Amino acid sequence: MSQVPAATRALRVLRYLAAQPEPVPLERIVAAVGMPRSSAYHLLGAMVAEGFVVHLEDERRYGVGVAAFEAGSGYARQAPLQRIARRPLAALVDQVGQSAHLAVLHGRDVLYVVEERAPGRPPLVTDVGVRLPAQLTASGRAILAELPPAQVRALYPDRAAFVDRHGTGPRSLTALRSVLAETRRRGHADESGEVTPGFESVAAAVHDHNGHPVAAIAVTYPAGADVDLPRTVRAVRRTAATVSGRLGGARPTVPEAR
User: Fold this and answer.
1) Cα(36)–Cα(70) distance, integer angstroms
2) Looking at the domain assignment, is residue 258 inside a domain?
3) Do 198 and 171 lie in a common domain?
4) Same domain, yes or no, for 89 and 49?
5) Is residue 95 domain-shared with residue 196, that is, in the same domain?
6) pLDDT tens track for 73-95
7) Which residue range(s) make up the domain with 44?
8) First to last CA, the chain
9) pLDDT tens-digit profile of 29-75?
C-alpha cells in the first residue's frame, strides 16, 4: 500500500490522460482510475492549479496540461528508457540473430524509440520515431494486454478506432479482447503479416516499479525464416524482464515457451 495515496492517484490520472487521443470527461477518468467522483473532481482541480491538467470548461473535459508536457520534454532530453534498454536489446539481437526494437504506447499507436538491426537483415518499418497502430503490432498487444480493461475500452470506444493496414487483425473491441486474452495466457504477444506482409514478430512487456507496462521489446523476422520460435520467445521475455528490473520492476521467472 502506498504511503502517499493522493500522489499515486494523481500519477494514475496523469498516465490515463496521457494515453488518450483527446481530452475526456470526468466520468471516464473516474471509471478508468477507480476513485469516487468527488475525490477525482478535487484531485483534478489541484492538478489543474499546478498546470499538469487542463480543464476545457465548454466541453466539460480534461486533458494533459503544459506542466506535463514540460516533464515529458525532460524525459525526452534524458532518454533514460532508451539508455537502459539499448545494451540488453543489442545482446538480444546477438542471441537470436534477428532485428529487435523497443516501443512505447502513445494513444492508440506504438512509438518505436530504439531499434537494433541484425547484420544482413533487411530494414523494417519499425524505425526510430515511427508510429504504428497498437492493435496490429506485437509490441502494442504486449502492452495493451496488461492495461486495465477500462483503459483499453477508452482507447477503442468504437470500430472507427481500429486501423486496417492489410485487411487482417482485430477490427472490434470484442476481437481485440480475444487477442489480448490469448496474449496474457501465453505470456507474450505475436503478429504475422499484420504490420508488414512477409514479416512476423513476438514481443513482451516491460514493467515499471508499479507493475505498469511502460514499453515492449519485440523481435521481428521474415515469415518462413529458420527461427527457433520457443528460444526466441524466451529470449525476448528474459530481455523484457532484465529491462524491467533496471526500472525497478519485477523480474518474473521466465518459463519454457510452448
Assistant:
1) 29
2) no
3) yes
4) no
5) yes
6) 665 555 678 888 999 999 999 99
7) 5-71
8) 35
9) 999 988 899 999 999 999 999 999 999 988 899 998 888 877 766 65
